[in-house]
Amino acid sequence: MAFFLQKSSLANHFRSSSQKIDGSMAVPSRAFHVEPGAREKALLAEDPSLRRFKSHKKGVARVKRIGDVLTIVVVAGCCYEIYVKAVMREEARNKAKAAGRE
């Protein structure tokens, strides 16, 4: 059996894939930090002609707050609807039991 495993292509495949994994573990997966060049710095610099298109911080914060409040209101409404349905179902079940006993 050991002879068969040494000669089979399947064993070679597993052996080569395990060697690839071991080899890749030796090389770090993250590259070293390199300072940006002149072109990258120019692209990242603030452009005065685009300044009027930037959103204002107060406006963005207000819209974010409104979105958060609306999300909370919708979730609370859904929870309330689920609660009301459960209570109504329980009342109907109790009414049916009472009608069945009489």
UniProtKB/TrEMBL annotation:
Origin superkingdom: Eukaryota
Gene Ontology annotations for the cellular component aspect, listed alphabetically: respiratory chain complex II (succinate dehydrogenase)
InterPro entries from the UniProt entry: SDH7
UniProt name for this protein: Uncharacterized protein
Protein's organism: Corchorus capsularis (Jute)
Lineage, broadest ranks: Eukaryota, Viridiplantae, Streptophyta, Embryophyta, Tracheophyta
